[in-house]
Amino acid sequence: MTTAADVAPTTDDEPVLLDWLHTMREQHPVWQDRYGLWHVFRHADVEAITRDPATFSSDTSRLVPAGAPVRRGMLTQLDPPEHRALRHLVSAGFTPRTVAALEPRIRAVTGELLDAAGERFDLVDALAFPLPVIVIAELLGLPAEDRELFRTWADGLFSMQVDDPTDPELGPRVEAAMADITAYLAEGCRARRAHPREDLMSALVTAEVDGRRLDDEEAANFSMLLLLAGHITTTLLLGNAVRTFDEHPGVWDELRADPGLIPGAVEEVLRYRSPFTQVGRATLRSAEVSEVTIPADALVMPWLLSANRDARAHSEPDRFDIRRGLGGGAQLAFGHGVHFCLGAPLARLEARVALEALTARYRALPVDHDAVARAGGLRHYPRGILGTRNLPLRPVAA
Ligand code: HEM
Q1: Domains and CATH numbers, the chain
Q2: Is-contact 346 138, C-beta < 8 A?
Q3: How far apart are CA 21 and CA 305, in angstroms?
Q4: Are 205 and 216 spatial neighbours (Cβ–Cβ below 8 Å)?
Q5: Is 233 in the pocket of ligand 1 (CB under 6 A)?
Q6: Which pLDDT tens digit goes with each residue over 225-267?
Q7: Relative to the CA of 276, which ligand 1 atom is closest?
Q8: Is the pTM of this model over 0.90?
């Protein structure tokens, strides 16, 4: 492909998308699509943009109708100094200690899910979807029975990703999709303010930093962010890991022989198949990026997936290598700068524990290609996120 299409390819045809990203990195490192969005592809530029919130604001709501329903407490949409204050407050309930303490529970839930999975199973249904949602729901203090509700909500919102975020139809649709979740979570927050329990939602409504507390709306919105941001992304990471290992013979045996390689393998999967392909920013003033001037009040889409495949930052970027090293910050799948993923330690912990359990249980874990064919192929998410909704497997017990 030599010329730019007038809109980015979707994520459901990964080879086409990766090929296009490669062309864009080399020939059009900063490129404006049909809808006026500025796409940025090189690692150094993506890093520079996400490090500069004074120019590249996370509050895209003034330019994107779909952002309008995004309300107070939505950490991802705030700029410093408001962002710093809120992040400080929520971090008080979401500490590395709280996360590390979850390890035994994550291990137990993984074991229960795999015990129930049967001889042949679909990784997404059996483990990759339920594990992260059970963990976040338990952390927040929400009843596990409601997890099908969370699935419907999250799936609905992610399916709504479109090429043109400036579409005026989008705002009301997202608003409607979020109304039920917000009402459900606001009720949970109110109940905990009256009678605090031992859970993260109670910590959120009672945490106090510099004399400030979250109100119910902020706490509910932040809980929603955790449910959405911490859920499908981790599902995709687990699916992407097993699918990528299947494509690279020998990796499974190596991980079984030395589980100490698992954290490095997780980092490499995040680089190679970044679940969250892009982030969004809105310029507060004009800016020069790779010698192109992006005007003020423009929507900018830095591509994390592209940055992670940039040969300027990673040698032989299209080679999957679990011994590449732990990233040293160069791997951008969790973002960069002040908005660096708050849940990264939890996502890494869940992926490590799940892969430790899978490699201990199964001598081999190949994709069941006959079942994939019968299902009409792997069902990829179409936009914004990279990964599949199904992954049938043919496990071989150890
Ligand atoms: C593999 C899994 C995950 C990936 C790839 C991922 C990716 C990201 C990325 C790229 C950002 C930055 C967005 C931006 O700069 O605009 C982010 C932010 C965030 N993530 Fe994650 N995430 C994952 C898992 C989680 C989990 C498990 C949680 C929580 C339970 C979580 C909670 C958050 C929150 C709260 C933010 C906002 C931080 C801020 O704005 O300061 N994420 N994530």
Answers
A1: 14-397 (1.10.630.10)
A2: no
A3: 9
A4: yes
A5: yes
A6: 888 788 889 999 999 999 999 999 999 999 999 999 999 999 9
A7: 5
A8: yes
